[in-house]
Structures are given as structure tokens and as C-alpha cells.
């Protein structure tokens, strides 16, 4: 618990730490709940690291599509590591304190990786559009230099979008009796509502980030697939249509896995305050943990080159 303090004549207050929570109302069984959480973290880290190793060690995978997949896997590793320390600390050891500045740092990286993932999925839709609309120029359009520039632009976009967030929170006056967070990690809408001050700027900032990143990205992804569908329907033979569409299935599933929980969580935080705390917690965990778990599974099942390369990595590790 936090040491007792006397709050007398304080005009501006920031807590030394926040108290995190695991699954609200189920603290007595956190030990059991930690088992599926630990398993999901293990699957996410193992699967995405295997993809990174497979692409790096397999020359035939040194193509734009798999470079973007590596970006997605690396982002999922970062997103997983953003929440793993505090979530497992709460579930395993009931260590619920997180320092104020540490909370802001975690919040920055958590939201940054989310923005990066959204941007990578948009870049992957562009990759599929180029591959289907102009396959003969695919390698000349998406050169290594172009891919590196896209990656740098994605990182810069996320950093610039999320950079003001911690500073907008540090200017707020917080309530001494409102230090209990709703999750086992620091989430911007959750942290800002602990303040005893006008958070209008923070609300508009959060809305701006959501619309200018995930909102725009989702619209461009939909537009790209409208164009892709138009091209596929224009192909002569049904076999060519099926082959072209099959190259997009993994990406479409990854888009649904990321954006549907993300949209659900945004709607709940803005319009679902009447819902139980456990509903808020579960939706947040699904949004942050399910995509890193499912993406490697989706691509290993739907992409034969990735599946074979990952199996080779596992056999090589087994022989070592």
C-alpha cells in the first residue's frame, strides 16, 4: 500500500504511484488466471520471434511481403513486452504499484506499438495492392530502400502522435483518493480519468490520435481492398481469382483481429461506462494480447513458405 500522507493546502498533486488491478473481483484466483495469461504471452513471443528468425534465415523469404510481416511480428513482440511485466507482476506476486513516471512511459510505448501495428497493416494492404495490380513491377516498386523508408515513416508517425500524451497528463492535477487504475497496465483514457481537473484537452487529443491513425488507416485499408476486389473480379479465370484472393486472406484476418477489438475497446471507454469493470478489463486484454497470439498462427497456417521456414527453425533448434 502507499504510505499515508497528509494532504493539506495542496493546490497541485501528482501521485507517486498508481495501484493496478488484474481481473476485478477475481483477485483470489489470480494465480490460476495467470496460467492462461502466461501461456498467451509465451505463444506470442515464441511465434513472433520464430517468424523473425524464419524471414532472416531464409533467403527465399527476402521479399517485400515477408519484410512487412517481419515488421508486424516485431511490433507484436513490442506490444507484448509493453504489458507483460506489470500484468504478470499483478497476477503472480500481487505487486500492484507502478510509479507515476513509469506509468507514463508504459503508456507511451503501449499506444505507440498499437499505432505502429495499425500503420504496418496499412502498409501490408498497399503491398497486396501492388502485388495484384502490377505483379511484374512488384519488386521494382517495393525495393528495399522503399520498405526501409516506409518503416521509418511508420515509427516517426507513432512517436510524433504519442509524444504529447505524457506531457498533457503531467500538467493535470490528480485526486489523492483516485489512484486505482482499471487494468494491470497504464492506458491513456484510464489514467486521465484519475485527474481532478478539466481533461477536455486530453479527451480531444485522444480522439485525434485514434482518428488520425487507426481511423485513417482502416479507411485506406478498406479502399485498398475495394480496388483489389475490382482487380480480382476482372481476372479471366476463376482459378486466377482464387489464387489472387488467397494471397490476401492472412492479411484480412490480421486486420479483423486487430481492428475489431480496438474499435470495441474505444467504444466501451467512451460510451460503456455503465458496464462492469470486468467487461472493460477483458476487452482491453483481448485487444492487447490476442493479435500478437493469433498473427503468427494465422500466417503459419495460411502461408506455406512461412510455415515451412518456421518448422525448419524449430528442427534446427531441436538438433542444437
From TrEMBL:
UniProt-listed PROSITE patterns: G_PROTEIN_RECEP_F1_1, G_PROTEIN_RECEP_F1_2
Location of the G-protein coupled receptors family 1 profile domain: 47-299
Keywords: Cell membrane, G-protein coupled receptor, Membrane, Olfaction, Receptor, Sensory transduction, Transducer, Transmembrane, Transmembrane helix
Pfam family, one: 7tm_4
Top-level lineage group: Eukaryota
One GO CC term on file: plasma membrane
SUPFAM superfamilies associated with the record: Family A G protein-coupled receptor-like
Gene3D superfamilies in alphabetical order: Rhodopsin 7-helix transmembrane proteins
Topological relation to the membrane, as annotated: Multi-pass membrane protein
GO process annotations (BP): cellular response to lipid
One annotated GO molecular function: olfactory receptor activity
Compartments where located: Cell membrane; Membrane
InterPro entries tied to this protein: GPCR_Rhodpsn, GPCR_Rhodpsn_7TM, Olfact_rcpt, OR51/52/56-like
Record flagged with keyword Transmembrane helix: yes
Annotated TM spans: 32-55, 67-93, 105-126, 138-160, 218-236, 248-272, 278-301
Cited PANTHER family: OLFACTORY RECEPTOR, OLFACTORY RECEPTOR 56B1-RELATED
Function per UniProt: Putative odorant or sperm cell receptor.
Family according to the record: Belongs to the G-protein coupled receptor 1 family.
Protein name in the entry: Olfactory receptor
